[in-house]
Design brief:
By secondary structure, the protein is α/β, with parallel strands linked by helices. The protein has two domains: 83 residues, Orthogonal Bundle (Methyltransferase, Methionine Synthase (B12-binding Domains), Chain A, domain 1); 121 residues, 3-Layer(aba) Sandwich (Rossmann fold). The chain has a five-stranded parallel β-sheet, with helices on both faces. The relative contact order is 0.11. The protein binds cobalamin.
């Protein structure tokens, strides 16, 4: 039964059946079936990997990419409050945004929700965030870490620009930088001067937890 509902969630997205996908998410939220929110979020993420492959292979076009993104966003918005339910006292502040030119926010939002559920005070800077807005957030909120999300190879140079600007404004040693998103790798993080790369939201949350106790 639990597998059935996760299949419905995943297949609903892959068949672009909004109603079936939302119904599966609502059923999980109501607790009709014992499935954790993490399993549900993972199922949506798995489906989006397949969406990306279909788009890359030319099997799906932009319209399908856009619509599947809308369904995924609606479902993630439904599931997110459950991830937050475990929030306890603040483990520290982290500011996160998607770099300039990039409008993808599903992964960033999942990281925000995971970290919130681990007790972090998360500041969401949004999408298409210009360099100076990241810098201003560091000055204003003095976060433990600055997170940047990037899914496009065309926008990954933005990460290096933000890190350089932090240095220029004497802020680089005041904040840890963590990056994530499909366009990035560990090697990229090292070359850009970030402190860490996280391949997923759970790893990202583990990393900031280590920084928080250090
Ligand atoms: C959904 C989607 C869209 C949606 C986005 C909806 C939204 N609100 O986010 C829409 C339709 C808008 C879209 C648009 C485009 N997209 Co798009 N999109 C995708 C798709 C299918 C899924 C992305 C996603 O949400 N994945 C699920 C999430 C959960 O995964 P994630 O983002 O990787 O996040 C996880 C980790 O990476 C990590 N993480 C992410 N960020 C961060 C940040 C921190 C700090 C931490 C710690 C962790 C972390 O945690 C998350 C959870 O574990 C990908 C395919 C793919 N394989 O990624 C293509 C993809 C990213 N898109 C692509 C392209 C080309 C585009 C467009 C240029 C298409 C076009 N021709 O217009 C536009 C660009 C628009 C823009 N300027 O940004 C390409 C990018 C290719 C490249 N190498 O540059 C991809 C890879 C598809 C492909 N295979 O070709 N897209």
């Amino acid at each position: 039964m639990a597998n059935g509902i996760l299949e419905q969630l995943k297949n609903g997205l892959l068949e672009l059946d909004r109603d079936s996908t939302v119904e599966a998410a609502n059923s999980i939220i109501r607790g009709d079936i014992s499935v954790s929110v993490k399993e549900a979020v993972d199922a949506v993420s798995d489906a989006l990997q397949i969406v990306g492959k279909r788009f890359q292979d030319g099997d799906w076009f932009l319209a399908e990419l856009v619509y599947s993104g809308e369904i995924a966003k609606e479902v993630m918005n439904l599931l997110s409050p459950l991830l937050e339910a475990g929030a306890t006292e603040s483990a520290g502040t982290v500011a996160v945004g998607t770099v300039a030119g990039d409008l993808h926010d599903l992964g960033k939002n999942i990281f925000i929700n995971y970290a919130k559920s681990a007790g972090f005070n998360m500041i969401d800077l949004g999408i298409d965030v210009p360099t100076q807005k990241f810098i201003d957030a560091v000055r204003e909120h003095k976060p433990l870490a600055l997170g940047m999300s990037c899914l496009l190879t065309s926008t990954d140079p933005e990460i290096g620009k933000v890190i350089e600007e932090l240095g220029r404004q004497n802020l680089r040693d005041k904040v840890k930088v963590i990056i994530g998103g499909a366009a990035l790798t560990e090697q990229f993080a090292q070359a850009a001067g970030a402190d860490a790369f996280a391949p997923d939201a759970v790893t990202g949350t583990d990393i900031i937890k280590q920084w928080s106790v250090a």
